[in-house]
Amino acid sequence: MVFAAYALVVLGSYLLGSVPTGYLAGRARGIDIRKVGSGNIGATNVFRVLGKKAGTGVLLGDALKGWLAVKVLALAVEALFGPPRMTVETAPSLHGLELAAGVAAILGHNYTCWLRFQGGKGIATSGGVMIAWLPQPFLVVLAVWILVFAVSRYVSVASIVTAVALPLATWRLDGRVEMAVITSFLAALAIYKHRANIRRLLNGTENRFGRKKPADGGPT
Predict the structure, then answer these.
(1) Does this model's pTM top 0.70?
(2) According to the model, what pLDDT value does residue 38 have?
(3) Residue spans per domain, the chain
């Protein structure tokens, strides 16, 4: 039963996270967002191609996927498999289900099954997960993202620096080893998804946000 609970929350959260919000926003306008701008399905490319309204909608939608997986889906599965169906000792823990849900939602966004496992970069969805998991560290890394972006005007740089800051803020403000380990994994995944941006930064060809030439690739 415990295995079934975790399998259900992982599958459900993956499918929720895999909803390609940016791609759907483009299709609603008759545009394949993968073939314009940077080719990324995340909010930044949507901002550039479709405008602020669509970009904001995609940003919030991607974040909401992560939050819903942790705060709604995990809770529903815990209620389904918990007491009185199972004893407190044998029922799956809500904390464990929330961790599984958050990671699965981010992987769903990054590797969506609906687009041949080519997804976004997971920053917005990770933000939604972090709001649900660790609201205080989230506020710290959000402040880091805003500060770095304001100074550099590079979305990619802000996202990479924020990824590095995430496990540090988690360890300092939360203190649980498992949360530091999990956020370190998420940070490494985010940096890996930005590897093309890193190459462009090293080559001096990365584009600052606001320019018409789309090379940044965006955070989500």
Answers:
(1) yes
(2) 84
(3) 2-203
Structure tokens at 115: 């687009």
**Helical packing angle, 177-193 and 155-173, nearest 10°:** 170
Reported as a single tens digit per residue, the pLDDT across 196-205 is: 999 999 999 9
Tens of pLDDT, residues 90-126 = 678 999 999 999 999 999 999 999 999 999 999 999 9
